[in-house]
Design goal:
By secondary structure, the protein is mostly helical. It folds into two domains: 143 residues, Helix-hairpin-Helix base-excision DNA repair enzymes (C-terminal) (Endonuclease Iii, domain 2, Orthogonal Bundle), CATH 1.10.1670.10; 140 residues, Endonuclease III, domain 1. The protein has 15 helices and two strands. Strands 1-2 form a two-stranded parallel ribbon. The two termini are 28 Å apart. Bound molecules: iron/sulfur cluster. Iron/sulfur cluster binds next to α10 and α15.
């Protein structure tokens, strides 16, 4: 019911703008999207994309062979301003160079551009192929693979024959948003109270939450009469710019450090959160607004 109500509020949302490519050379742009997605866990997506885009501006340098051999110092110089300087750095360097090496060796083929009819679902589709790559395949909920497919579509680098197979990419901003808007809630009261402070949960528990959010996204998109990638793009922005982890910005404005595109701004009446009139957390003014997404132990590199 909550999915239906919130989905109705999104009806007529303008189509998302075309995303700028990371390189004017299409093959370099695909490689850049793949490598950005491979290391996109727990980081600021805009900064990461900007740093990869800067590096990809030089297609002579930005080749899979060259990138596979980057030392940690070279990786830091090229992409450091897009990455958190924390304990995740070494793991990101490994994922990045491993993925570039697979491309260089031809074990991960990026010929989607040259396929007259790229398919995302089913055996041999893009999700299936990415599932065999460690950076993408370790996550049972395929967050990075799903982000990548959506980015390739937004940049018009691919135009799949099976757009209905494009799946939601569920990450922590969306989980927080779906909890606060009461579209997904734990059934046990003790689990609900644990979600009022950042609490670490085991990966299988978080996997169940992510699958529940995914189902709720399908209900919401159906009520909104928009596609899954369109809904994903809108709600990810609402989650990270309005429904922030600290005090949610129900009355606006959006977090200026995480700007929203015109699709979301068109829905934001007077600069308020697009869900301000429909959201249970805004109406109740206390309990639900304090909920935060469950945390995953830092040894995982896909959330
Ligand atoms: S109204 Fe407030 S609590 Fe609800 S989704 Fe928007 S920012 Fe989050």
């Amino acid at each position: 019911m909550r999915c239906y109500e919130l989905g109705l509020g999104l009806r007529g949302a303008p189509a998302p703008p075309r995303q700028e490519r990371l390189s004017s050379d299409p093959d370099t742009a695909v490689l850049a999207e793949v490598l950005a997605a491979a290391i996109c866990h727990s980081t600021n997506w805009d900064r990461l994309r900007a740093s990869v885009g800067r590096a990809a501006g030089d297609p002579e340098w930005f080749t899979a062979h060259r990138l596979a051999g980057l030392t940690p110092a070279e990786f830091q110089r090229a992409f450091g301003d897009g990455l958190a300087a924390d304990s995740t750095f070494a793991g990101r360097h490994r994922l990045f160079t491993e993925t570039a090496a697979l491309v260089a060796a031809g074990e991960l083929r990026l010929d989607w551009l040259h396929d007259a009819a790229p398919r995302v679902g089913g055996e041999g589709g893009i999700y299936d192929r990415l599932g065999r790559v460690p950076a993408f395949g370790r996550d049972p909920e395929q967050k990075k693979a799903r982000i990548l497919v959506q980015e390739l579509c937004r940049t018009e680098l691919i135009d799949p024959v099976d757009p209905a197979s494009i799946r939601p990419a569920v990450e922590y901003h969306l989980i927080r948003l779906y909890l606060r808007t009461e579209r997904v809630l734990p059934t046990r009261a003790e689990d609900l109270s644990k979600l009022t402070t950042p609490t670490t949960f085991r990966a299988p528990v978080i996997g169940r939450v992510r699958r529940a959010v995914e189902s709720a996204m399908y209900f919401t998109a159906s009520a909104a009469e928009i596609s899954i990638p369109h809904l994903n793009q809108i709600e990810w922005q609402v989650g990270r710019s309005y429904c922030v982890r600290g005090n949610p910005r129900c009355s606006g404005p959006a977090d200026p450090g995480k700007p929203c595109d015109e699709t979301v701004l068109a829905l934001a009446d007077g600069g308020r959160c697009p869900f301000a009139d429909l959201c249970a957390a805004n109406a109740d003014g206390s309990g639900l607004a304090r909920l935060v997404e469950p945390q995953l132990s830092s040894r995982h590199d896909f959330y």
